[in-house]
Amino acid sequence: MAPNTVDSKTISPITEDGSMDRRGNPAVKAKTGKWKSSILLLVNYGLVTCAFFGVGVNLVVFLRRVLHQDNAEAANSISKWTGTVYIFSLIGAFMSDSYWGRYITCAIFQMIYVTGLVILSLASWFLLVKPSGCGDPETQCNPPSTAGVALFYLSTYMIAFGNGGYQPSIATLGSDQFDETDPDEARSKVAFFSYFYLALNVGSLFSNTVLVYYEDAGQWVMGFWVSAAAATLALVLFLLGTPNYRYFKPSGNPLTRIAQVLVAACRKWRAHTPARGELLHELDGDEAYREAGIRKILHSDQLKYLDKAATVTEEDYCEPENLKNPWRVCTVTQVEEVKCILKMLPIWLCTIVYSVVFTQMASLFVEQGTTMNTNIGSFHVPAASMSVFDILSVLAFIAIYRRMLVPVMARLSGNPQGLTELQRMGVGLVIGMAAMVVAGVVEVERLKRVPASTPDQPSSLSVLWQVPQYALIGASEVFMYVGQLEFFNGQAPDGVKSFGSSLCMASISLGNYVSIMLVSVVTTLTAGDRRPGWIPGNLNSGHLDRFYFLLAALSLVDLAVYVACAMWYKGIKLDSNGERGKVAVHV
Q1: How far apart are CA 126 and CA 432, in angstroms?
Q2: Does the pTM of the predicted model rise above 0.85?
């Protein structure tokens, strides 16, 4: 995303992107925002992530050992829960963009999040983990009580609601701390998204190493209380930064603005659209848009049917009040908002298959690991802790990409960011596909090493053979999810910035639900009276490798569709203070 060229002599001491201080005045650059506020938000996000993964990374094991669910049921339960986490991001984004603003939305959903973690800790302590310390590989827990199960699902879905609503708003609030009309701050804004994903992985590192080890040993209650404490500390730090944040005014319900464009276009379906965009209806000056907290968007040539909504007909000239009725005549900026959202949707849909690949790391990768040799000498390695190699891969590839690949690719392509967002997302799809092939090959080798005399026992293949598939998933995340965050946040119109950030989370959500569907369909089609199926309760009698190869094949098809959509896509064009700037996005 290339920042607009701005003469350094014209740089203002106050922000020019519409951001304000907490009193509603234009934000002074020297006193608000920038890295001072962003670093605090990154620490907040890291702690929230630590708390989330302290619960989520080993939850599939908790469901099997404490709630006595089988493999397929536990995998689907995790997919439903994870999917719900990210589908709630759409609710958080809507409230943030429309009514509450980013700051209030983050605060409210973090309070819900902390409450859910406390309830989960209490329910596990008093009702579920009985006898105390059960749920390790050796000690069976008592059958859970109805009250315990009810509180478990209430608390985990409160965690899902709180975390989901918080995530898109914190990403957008963090990027709001940089004024993209200032060249230096614009460069920092691009870097912020890499550090944002870095904070996510640093935060989860403790959960995936220390907490998962104690939880796997039966210390579930301690693990959940540590997560609750981390989330509480995150909330306190977030509130401490209140005086120095930069704020944006919520711009009202975007659904109404979208509906107005569609209704106005349909009413004028017979109208002739002017050949030149300058002849379409637009407000003079920028003052009205500034008051609404958005910037003017220039006309684009794609999806021209929607231009009918901004076409002024003879009837409109005869009845001037029509020009003030957005249900009859919309502005070019309002029409372009709808176009931007519609143009992003094909790209977004193509990311869902990747999210199906990504979600296997929290479910089937863990179940695969539990059926391997998890001992290294006398040390036991919890299968869920193997995700630490995903985290380490993310940390390594963020450094490699920013320090090595960007300078090289910038010289080759002429793009100062190295690869465009869409190019990075395409690379992520390819690496994700490779991860599924590697996982399938590992599963083939694991099955070869299952003792014939004791088919219910784990394979002799070391769990360390999973390292490559975790590392490849981590590398693909750097390209796919960081690219997604930059793309959807940068290409979303000002009035729906949190919605843009939520699209990344919603992709993960639908990926989880598609994974549920695939697991269910594959189980139904491959299992019978005498066939255990590809994903049975005992993976030693199944063919999980075929499921991984199926995902690789689906990823290949998805890649072809994605390339076609990316080549068609044209970026948003903003008119800011008379400076016409286009966010360059291409393949």
Answers
A1: 41
A2: no
